[in-house]
Amino acid sequence: xxxxxxxxxxxxxxxxxxxxxxxxxxxxxxxxxxxxxxxxxxxxxxxxxxxxxxxxxxxxxxxxxxxxxxxxxxxxxxxxxxxxxxxxxxxxxxxxxxxxxxxxxxxxxxxxxxxxxxxxxxxxxxxxxxxxxxxxxxxxxxxxxxxxxxxxxxxxxxxxxxxxxxxxxxxxxxxxxxxxxxxxxxxxxxxxxxxxxxxxxxxxxxxxxxxxxxxxxxxxxxxxxxxxxxxxxxxxxxxxxxxxxxxxxxxxxxxxxxxxxxxxxxxxxxxxxxxxxxxxxxxxxxxxxxxxxxxxxxxxxxxxxxxxxxxxxxxxxxxxxxxxxxxxxxxxxxxxxxxxxxxxxxxxxxxxxxxxxxxxxxxxxx
Length: 366
Ligand SMILES: [Fe+2]
Ligand SMILES: [Fe+2]
Description:
Elements: H1 17-21, H2 31-41, H3 53-62, H4 66-97, H5 101-128, H6 132-141, H7 151-162, H8 170-184, H9 186-197, H10 202-228, H11 235-256, H12 266-283, E1 329-330, E2 341-342
Antiparallel strand pairs: 1-2
The structure holds fe (ii) ion (2 copies).
One fe (ii) ion binds near residues 114, 117, 211 and 215.
């Protein structure tokens, strides 16, 4: 059962004009500036994928089999609407509820890039599914829990919409959207990285790298914000949501891989998703559900599990080096009441736009 009690929290208190109206970074929540500036340094337009679209189209008809095309259609059907739901939740809920002006600035930036994601997926969808009626069927299917091919997408969408209901406490909804951006997108990212390893669908793969990086930032920001709340959900409730999200994403993987693609077996994909959910639980300060290992080491190179310094990958030359990234500092540990703590000794910004702590034991390393 959802909790119904909402305790006052400075982040959510509309009576504090200094918090609500002051147009400045708030030193009680220094992570906000860090994520904002980092995100700002990585902005990109949908036009970045245009030069590769024709090759995607050629390979779609010549080089992909029907199982692979089904997989990509399912992914696009989900993504074509998921960004819209995340964006709607920011507009209708989070950016309205959170009273801290700098968090609202961050949400403005996230909302902008969610729009770029939606635009990009629509370009990809039009390119690979050019008949308008086929594309429309895909979009409609994501709402139909009885559609035999797309019911798993509809189930994920229904779960997202359940946690947009303001009758539920903010902390629970924030937690749910950590699992949306940190888990519901991961099966699709993994699937597209699989095609990247096969040198297929370059436009889709470029988009995937940029979008996975952005969603990584959104997830980590949301975890920091959640940890800064005065009151979090009970651990049992966190586990309940984590299990629900994991189960839905595993169902999605099973439905997407009706015929197993070579090298991307269904059970390994499910194991990978369990590994991802464990990482989110760890960052939320909880024990993992299990001790599974990552069956897809190549995903380490995509920065999805914190094993490599993600933002030093070659494509991150896109980072706008005019942007000064401050040192990253964490909110107080859950329930500790401790003052804000610095993460490592990286940072400093200046000419080096992207500075990260790169010690291997940092829980926030990319
Ligand atoms: Fe997105
Ligand atoms: Fe996002």
